[in-house]
Amino acid sequence: MHKTFGKLHVLVDLTQSTMSDVVYDVVVVGAGVEGSAAAYYLAKRGKKTLLLEQFPLPHSRGSSHGQSRITRKAYSQDFYTEMMHEATDIWRQLEKEAGWEVFRPTGYLAMGEHNGVFLQDNVSSLTRHGASFQYLPPLDFRRRYPMLAYPDNYAAIVDPDGGILRADKALLAYQGMFQKYGGRLIDGAKVTNIRRGNIVTLDTPNASYRGRSVIICPGPWASHILRPFGVKLPLKVVRICVLYWKERQPGSHGASKLPTFYEDNDGYPIYGLPSEEYPGHVKICLHLGPEMEAESRDQVDAKWVIDRMRNYVRDHFPGLEPAPSIVETCIYTNTPDCHPVIDYLPSSRNIVLGAGFSGHGFKLSPVVGKVLGQLACGETPSYGLTPFRIDRFPPQAGL
Ligand SMILES: Cc1cc2nc3c(=O)[nH]c(=O)nc-3n(C[C@H](O)[C@H](O)[C@H](O)COP(=O)(O)OP(=O)(O)OC[C@H]3O[C@@H](n4cnc5c(N)ncnc54)[C@H](O)[C@@H]3O)c2cc1C
Q: Which among 282, 318, 360, 385 is least buried, having the fewest CB atoms inside 10 angstroms?
């Protein structure tokens, strides 16, 4: 049975425990942004690809829902800046293919102590990779952004390639284009078992599917799907409060005046987006939250996050009401070093994992999808994947 959501056609699986004769080149598990990007990359290359998603689409239970994400080339680690060059090009290409806006260029502002390590590392990465940027010393920073109230020694970097990704529309674009290029998407199909072999078999409650390779992008459900493989990663699943703060004067923090932004904030990092996708409201969030299980996301108390953010907004954004008007919820899956795992599963050359994107994986998805796809096809990936190796974490006890 076919259902249509906007331009997205989803094949609903009503078969009874069937095993298809079809052997896919690649089966991708998880239609969040990373799995959808990998599926899009593979189908565009003409690979016979199946994308399986446990929930009916669209859904808001993982990490890829909502209307906005920040994109930027400014990173402290230059391997990300390198990846973001190509990612930025692919985002633009994807929106052309889809025919709707995915990327809204507003610029991005990295804020911190003048000449401090955070800003210096960003400057080094951007310089090494020839990316454009402007360094604003304290006086210039204060003059350019009078709606912000930071200490006198604060400076900023303006990254003109940064902006807002329209998250929901980006996901729809990946999945829609994937199907246009011949990919098959089945939602409401939870993968309950993966059987290794030269041909890998994936079981769902209604049917089994086969692929020469498999890519697993399970988001916060990683530990569930990895357990049968004897793989335990030190992942922390965290509840994130998505907070919208009302402008006292409408338009004072709009995208023409304020870019997307990030600040280290003494170990309590915050990020934000101008009033844009929710007119009259600025999105400002803590990049941390309480640990929890994806299955019981809203049972964990996040009051301390909101209390901390009220104080933050009162102190640094005097033009906003210091109580959030809207509170939404999303999930991070964090690794100890905040870099994802992009690698084969141990003792496997045809099962690839992309997990632990630690709250910054959306913007990277075009290149993450590409390298996951390259690994699944047994090719040398276009980027060095040493920072993302699975064996950087010692084996964990207690499966
Ligand atoms: C509030 C918030 C703000 C963020 N801001 C930014 C930002 O500004 N910039 C940025 O770059 N990134 C940002 N991120 C991070 C980014 O959104 C995530 O890194 C990214 O969405 C992770 O995608 P994913 O595909 O790994 O996980 P998910 O989106 O969770 O997708 C995993 C999918 O796998 C499915 N699945 C799991 N198990 C199975 C199974 N057994 N069978 C079938 N399907 C299965 C799940 O249902 C889910 O759909 C933010 C995240 C949040 C929560």
A: 318
